[in-house]
Design goal:
single chain; 2 domains; alpha/beta; 10 helices; about 50% helix; Rossmann fold; five-stranded parallel β-sheet; Arc Repressor Mutant, subunit A
Length: about 200
């Protein structure tokens, strides 16, 4: 049985995605969230998901920053971006943040069905105009994969221009622990200083 989380602020599109997933598995269960806040609550619960479908233009999220937010909460669950944005650079950048697939909202239903089937089988799917694959650009996916969920969260907060004190307060940890996380992020991403890490974080937007 496939259990999917659909994160999109358009009810009709959530319904369409639910229909596509039901064709993949008659016993599938789709849980819907219309905002990043709702998605965060659902992912923070006891339920585990086999697949997460994410729109990039959500309330409470800023572009690609939403990907890190989701991956920090469900690092082992495949994430597929479903977006109206079909820009090749955006697709490439999304791939660099470790998503398993990217589907444009104007694609045919059969294409969407095939894409989700591939991802559920452990493969990846990207639009044909990218050759079905993408090359890393600003941040390499392999480097992001080395970050822990907490480090991904700290990186996201750095991208929001939060100070160490603000990050410590928001995560209920000490400022010294924040510094330890930032040092680990710099080392793993190959950044030479905090400013460079912040620049990387801003590339999520």
């Amino acid at each position: 049985m496939v259990k999917a989380l659909i994160i999109d602020d358009h009810p009709l599109f959530r319904e369409a995605l639910t229909f596509v997933i039901s064709r993949l598995d008659d016993e599938s269960v789709c849980v819907e969230a219309e905002s990043m806040e709702q998605a965060t609550t659902l992912l923070g619960g006891e339920s585990a998901f086999d697949l997460i479908l994410l729109d990039l233009g959500l309330p409470g999220a800023s572009g690609l920053a939403g990907i890190l937010g989701i991956r920090s909460l469900a690092p082992s669950t495949p994430v597929v971006v479903v977006s109206a944005i079909d820009d090749a650079d955006m697709i490439q950048r999304a791939a660099c943040f470790g998503v398993s697939g990217y589907i444009t909202k104007n694609c045919a239903g059969t294409t969407m069905h095939t894409a989700l089937a591939k991802v559920l089988a452990g493969d990846t799917h990207f639009p044909a105009e990218t050759g079905g694959a993408v090359l890393p650009s600003h941040i390499r996916s392999a480097e992001l994969e080395t970050l822990t969920p907490r480090q991904l969260t700290v990186l996201r907060l750095l991208g929001e221009a939060k100070s160490n004190k603000q990050i410590a307060y928001e995560l209920s940890i000490s400022q010294e622990t924040v510094k330890i996380h930032i040092s680990a992020i710099l080392r793993k991403l190959g950044a030479s200083n905090r400013a460079q890490a912040v620049l990387m974080a801003h590339q999520m937007r």
